[in-house]
Design goal:
The chain has 391 residues and is of the alpha+beta class. It has two domains: 2-103, no CATH class; 147-389, no CATH class. The protein is built from 13 helices and six strands. A six-stranded mixed sheet has the order 1-2-6-5-3-4, with helices on both faces. Helix 1 runs antiparallel to helix 2 (63-74) and helix 1 packs parallel to helix 3. InterPro entries: Peptidase_C65_otubain.
Length: 391
């Protein structure tokens, strides 16, 4: 009997001990889980704080949010799962707000910088050129300290654009006779030769580049002006040059409009010297082909700007077309549209001979009424040469 009582007591003691032991282990397990959860929360919070700080430092106006984050660091790191989720949502909202603010600020800054660059770009470019810190290509003209003289070097730079491609071709040739006209222009096409021979006795070949129309037009117009019988008529023919606002453009380098201030004085002085010479036409041909003179370049620039201005005066909506004409590399497309304007403005009569080799036809059109002041233009595939009239 005593033995069984002792056995029961021993068993009860063991159960109590075992229960206590189990409870201890359970408590230890829960404590360990809590510690792991706390550690996980701490790591997540630290990762999040690092991410927030990277975003905050991108703008200067984030100091308030940084202060809030610093306060959060000081708060107890042990949070319940619900508290952590709530805090995460709040921080996400703040982060989204900051990102949007950064984007707005960046857009505003970019717009200001873009406007500032548009204003300062020309001056910075000129300064870089003058300090020899910027070389765009081999034909980039050297610029001097004196901006009034720089247009000379700019014009020489314009010459080089096509001299690199066609180095030996003159701007305007001497007169070729009827047989040379048939061989070079009509390529001995009998129908075309017969049609041209009714009106022309020869031609002057113009350099094969986009300036052919302007060269053919300017050379013949100056021929007309140089034939004037008195000084006042001669000056009147050239008076429009003084009133032009000059701009010339190229896709090879930037040209400042200030380069061409007072350039008319040089040009008018040169053509005055030609006017009083013994053989004005010969002198004109020489100076137009002189690559050490800016006379040819200025002639092209003047007539490009004149045509540009005539287009604007006729229709202000054609500003884009008018600006394109100012590019040295651009040929004059649809020249027929401006022939009437030129004839009226310069008091000339333009004879255009448009050659169509496929149809073996020459289409002749006349613009203007002044038969005493004629200009003859041979047009083949948008290239222009000078026609020598039989009459």
């Amino acid at each position: 009997m005593d033995q069984e009582q002792n056995k029961d007591q021993t068993y009860q003691t063991y159960e109590i001990f075992n229960s206590v032991e189990v409870q201890k282990r359970q408590n230890l397990k829960e404590v360990k889980q809590d510690q792991e959860l706390i550690q996980e929360n701490i790591l997540q919070d630290e990762d999040y704080l690092q991410h927030e700080q990277k975003t905050i430092f991108q703008i200067n106006q984030a100091s308030k949010f940084q202060s809030d984050l610093n306060k959060e660091v000081e708060e107890p790191k042990i949070m319940t799962q619900i508290q952590r989720q709530v805090k995460q949502k709040e921080n996400n909202k703040k982060e989204k707000f900051l990102v949007e603010e950064i984007q707005i600020k960046t857009t505003q800054i970019n717009k200001v910088q873009e406007n500032q660059l548009k204003t300062e770009n020309g001056l910075l470019f000129i300064q870089a050129q003058q300090e020899s810190k910027l070389i765009l290509n081999p034909i980039m003209p050297k610029l001097n300290k004196n901006i009034q003289e720089d247009y000379v070097n700019v014009i020489f730079g314009l010459y080089k654009i096509y001299d690199e491609q066609i180095p030996k071709e003159v701007f305007i040739s001497s007169i070729y006779n009827q047989h040379q006209l048939e061989a070079q222009i009509t390529e001995n096409n009998v129908n075309i030769s017969n049609q041209l021979s009714k009106f022309l006795s020869g031609f002057r070949k113009i350099k094969s580049d986009p300036n052919s129309f302007f060269a053919a037009l300017s050379f013949q117009f100056f021929q007309i002006a140089l034939k004037q019988q008195n000084q006042s008529q001669f000056e009147n023919d050239l008076s429009w040059i003084q009133n032009l606002n000059i701009a010339i453009k190229t896709r090879q380098f930037i040209i400042d409009d200030n380069y061409f201030q007072n350039h008319q004085n040089y040009f008018l002085q040169k053509i005055q010297e030609i006017y009083v010479s013994r053989n004005p036409e010969e002198q004109l041909e020489q100076i137009m082909n002189d690559r050490q003179s800016q006379f040819y370049g200025l002639s092209i620039i003047y007539f490009r700007n004149l045509i540009s201005q005539l287009i604007i005066d006729e229709n202000s909506d054609k500003n884009e077309e008018a600006e394109e004409i100012k590019f040295w590399e651009n040929s004059l497309s649809n020249a027929n549209n401006i022939f009437e304007l030129l004839a009226e403005r310069l008091k000339i009569q333009i004879h255009e001979y448009n050659i169509n080799k496929q149809k073996s036809q020459v289409y002749k059109q006349i613009y203007g009424d002044d038969t005493e002041r004629q200009i003859h233009l041979l047009c083949l595939d948008e290239h222009y040469d000078i026609g020598i009239s039989k009459f």
